[in-house]
Amino acid sequence: MPPKVDEDLCTGCGRCEEVCPASVFKIVDNISRVENPDECTECGTCVDECPVEAIKLE
To answer: Which among 46, 57, 42, 48 has a CA at the least distance from the CA of 16?
Structure first.
């Protein structure tokens, strides 16, 4: 399953986009968007690195 971003928590810092080895995220209008969900390997790096805990893997 691809990650989910809680848009109410996301600050658009871009950390997820920087650390994702599969280029799953893109910052659009200061919010993280899951742009390439099929590329996600569920490594959890985005979850670990999000400073506001806006990203979840289900």
So the answer is: 46
pTM of this prediction? 0.91
CA-wise closest residue to 44 among 20, 14, 23 = 20
Question: Which pLDDT tens digit goes with each residue over 23-40?
Answer: 999 999 999 999 999 999
Confidence of residue 58 (pLDDT cuts 50, 70, 90): confident
The full set of domain ranges for the chain reads 4-56
CA–CA distance, 31 with 5 (Å, rounded to integer):
9
Q: Which CATH topology does 4-56 take?
A: Alpha-Beta Plaits (3.30.70)
